[in-house]
Design goal:
By secondary structure, this protein is an alpha/beta fold. The protein has helices at 5-18, 24-35, 40-46, 55-72, 77-81, 103-114, 131-140, 152-166, 200-203, 208-213, 227-236, 255-264, and strands at 83-86, 89-92, 121-125, 144-149, 171-175, 188-193, 240-249, 268-274, 280-286. Helices cover 43% and strands 19% of the residues.
């Protein structure tokens, strides 16, 4: 049986629409390009060309159908392809880490802006895929970065990304529940974290891709979503150099609560920034010099 790329795209789009996926055509196209190891330009050129039943084409078609079946089960696209772009860099992802979001780029971009031309010592807590730590090291040229996570499986992903993107070991990867494995004599200029911040009771209401396939540990901010912010605010200043700053990604409705926690813990110069959608996304505070 002969088939064209366009026919495969139409079939895939229809199947994903029936599965309740909102961006069905976009996802089907991504999977098609991945299966045929091609790009959008070549797809547009070749989409109406009938494919011969060669071994190579047959394998690519089967790969497409297999990935399509996974997406129909609401497995995230990025877990199927094993890849997610963040800050212009390509990160490997799997079921053990939170998929990097564009929202988090706001956090990285602000630190890069605040420390342009400087070389701060950085601690990234709840590092997950390592996207924050690695982006800061690569794009900011920061030479001393510690990336910590409570999950050994997540750290394996972060290390893999560090080796692929940096090509050298200028990041220390550490198994730690927040500050537990950080020495009491350690001090940093920047502590950054995108901690779990979704209230436990809200997780069941999330899209199946997030609720069922991303690590619960990376989502669950306990009862009110503020559990980790309380710990970061209370303990963070003990690991900052004079004048050092704590940068936190937050939920869109958590700015006031997180700012208050930082203020109560003695942080000054409390600032906040919105993401590209105009939603509150980052809060920071510093300690006096």
């Amino acid at each position: 049986m002969s088939v064209t790329l366009n026919q495969l795209l139409e079939e895939g789009t229809g199947r994903l629409m029936k599965a309740g996926i909102q961006e069905a055509e976009i996802d089907a196209r991504y999977l098609l390009l991945e299966a045929f190891h091609t790009d959008l330009t070549h797809f547009l050129i070749d989409r109406y060309r009938t494919m011969n039943e060669t071994e190579k084409s047959g394998e690519s078609i089967q790969d497409f159908y297999q990935m399509l079946a996974l997406r129909e089960k609401r497995i995230p696209l990025q877990q199927i392809t094993g890849s997610r772009e963040f800050m212009g860099l390509d990160f490997f992802v799997n079921e053990h880490v939170l998929i990097p979001r564009q929202d988090t780029e706001t956090l990285v971009e602000q630190i890069l802006k605040d420390y342009k031309g400087r070389n701060p010592r950085v601690l990234d807590l709840c590092t997950g895929s390592g996207c924050i730590a690695i982006s800061l090291a690569r794009l900011g040229g920061f030479e001393s970065v510690v990336a910590a996570d409570i999950s050994d499986e997540a750290l394996k992903v972060a290390k893999r990304n560090g080796e692929a993107i940096l090509g050298k070991e200028n990041i220390t990867f550490l198994l730690s529940d927040l500050f537990d494995a950080i020495g009491s004599d350690e001090a940093f200029d920047v502590i950054v974290s995108n901690p779990p911040y979704i209230p436990t009771g809200v997780i069941s209401q999330l899209q199946p891709e997030v609720r069922d396939h991303e690590p619960f540990l990376a989502l669950d901010g306990k009862e009110d979503g503020l559990y980790f912010y309380r710990k970061l605010a209370a303990e963070g200043r003990n690991y900052l150099n004079p004048g050092g700053a704590l940068y936190l990604e937050i939920g869109y409705d958590q700015k006031d609560a997180v700012s208050a926690l930082l203020r109560e813990a003695g942080f000054v110069n409390i600032r906040s920034w919105c993401d590209a959608a105009g939603l509150d996304r980052v809060v920071s505070g510093s300690i006096e010099k």
